[in-house]
TrEMBL record:
Keywords: Aminotransferase, Pyridoxal phosphate, Transferase. Belongs to the DegT/DnrJ/EryC1 family. This is Aminotransferase class I/II-fold pyridoxal phosphate-dependent enzyme. It holds the Pfam family DegT_DnrJ_EryC1. The lineage of its organism: Bacteria, Bacillati, Bacillota, Clostridia, Eubacteriales. The active site is at residue 198. It comes from Heliomicrobium undosum. Gene3D superfamilies: Aspartate Aminotransferase, domain 1, Type I PLP-dependent aspartate aminotransferase-like (Major domain). It comes from the Bacteria.
């Protein structure tokens, strides 16, 4: 049996007629840049996420870039972020000439360790940098410890830019909100990606910036189109960060189904848990299951963009699963402080032990919404037989 890591064909098949109709409408209108499709999707996304402003942009990477630009981040500034994420999180900081200061991670959630963030702020100051912003990442589809991060940011006057690329629709417990708040609605800005492998994916690259601030929203909209307002008059320098009308049209078809997909992913996660807990691999401690920290407190506490297990003999297991037709992936094999492009930051190799451990021990299993019970039986059976060998 073959179980791919992701099956976009199965995902899109039931929607094909509707998606093609939406695409055809844009093609017939010839309105490819901005326009009513982008505006409509921005309104729908803002309503879904419970934010005042949602601004469509060209990718999750550009969402981070434009959010940092809106904070005026540049040379001499420090931005605090996790050592363990997709490259774009740190790359966006360096591209603006600012310096990223990394933090270690919590070994249970793989998200930013807040005490380590406090230390990073002090380190930035003593190295002569101005700490201006902090980028928590909601890795794998679960919120970072936003209560502690917001408190730290308030105390140290940092802007909070949430990297919610893997976490659209994830909720986090917040006092006074019985259903919690969506991530991306908690900090000053939230950044989302519609890369095809995210829970809400388009047919290419796309992204979104959210904010409750009128002033930041205005600035992001101006930066998105070369900093021009009115057209051809530039008081500031921006870029071409626009979301295509075609992508917006596709996203509007898909957004109403997102909660159902989240529910399917959560069902699949529950099945893995139940089945894996009966294996010797778990009882003997060879593998550790992901922890849904806020389960029961809010809906969508974890949306399993990835179902990541921590395992013994990771690379061998990956090979074995591959030989048995199971697709897996390592997110991410090299922490930021060990990347060649960040060698100039001069971090000691052992600076972030939990990040290093995660890079060496974690493995993402197939979790996509269309996965069947039989496929999961196959995956669990293969894991079980690997550790029984
Ligand atoms: C996917 C991702 C991004 C970048 O999004 P793109 O749309 O691919 O540019 C940024 N941060 C994280 C955590 C991501 O997973």
């Amino acid at each position: 049996m073959r179980v791919p890591l992701l099956d976009l064909k199965a995902h899109n098949a039931p929607l094909k007629a509707e998606l093609m109709a939406a695409v055809e409408e844009v093609v017939d209108s010839c309105g490819f840049i901005m326009g009513p499709k982008v505006e409509a999707f921005e309104k729908e996304a803002a309503a879904y996420l419970g934010v005042k402003h949602a601004i469509g942009v060209s990718s999750g990477t550009d969402a981070l870039l434009v959010a940092l630009m809106a904070c005026g981040i540049g040379p001499g500034d420090a931005v605090i972020t996790t050592d363990f994420s997709f490259f774009a999180t740190a790359g966006a900081v360096s591209r603006l000439g600012a310096r990223p200061f990394f933090t270690d991670i919590n070994p249970v959630t793989y998200n930013m360790d807040v005490e380590s963030a406090r230390a990073a702020i002090e380190m930035a100051k003593s190295a002569g940098y101005r700490p201006k912003a902090i980028i928590p990442v909601h890795l794998y589809g679960q919120s970072a410890d936003m209560k502690a991060i917001m408190a730290l940011a308030a105390e140290t006057s940092l802007a909070v830019i949430e990297d919610a690329a893997q976490a659209i629709g994830v909720r986090y417990p917040v006092d006074g909100h019985p259903q919690g708040l969506c991530v991306g609605a908690i900090g000053d800005m939230g950044c989302f990606s519609f890369f095809p492998s995210k829970n809400l994916g388009c047919f290419g690259d796309g992204g979104l910036v959210t904010t409750q601030s009128d002033a930041l929203a205005e600035k992001i909209r101006i930066l998105r189109a070369h900093g021009s307002r009115p057209k051809y008059y530039h008081a500031i320098i921006g870029g071409n960060f626009r979301l295509d009308a075609l992508q917006a049209a596709v996203l509007s078809v898909k957004l109403p189904l997102l909660d159902q997909w989240h529910a399917n992913r959560r069902r699949n996660a529950a099945r893995y848990r139940e089945m894996l807990q009966q294996t010797k691999a778990v009882s003997d401690g060879w593998i550790q299951l992901p922890v849904d920290v806020y389960d029961g407190l809010v809906p969508h506490s974890h949306i399993y963009n990835q179902f990541v297990i921590r395992v013994d003999r990771r690379d061998e297991l990956k090979e074995y699963l591959k030989d048995n037709g199971v697709g897996t992936e390592i997110y991410y094999p090299v922490p930021f402080h060990r990347q060649i492009c960040f060698a100039d930051l001069a971090y000691p190799a052992e600076a972030f032990p939990e990040s290093d451990k995660a890079a060496a021990e974690t493995l993402a299993l197939p979790i996509y919404p269309e996965l069947t019970q039989e496929m999961q039986d196959h995956v669990v059976g293969a894991i079980d037989s690997f550790y029984s060998k």
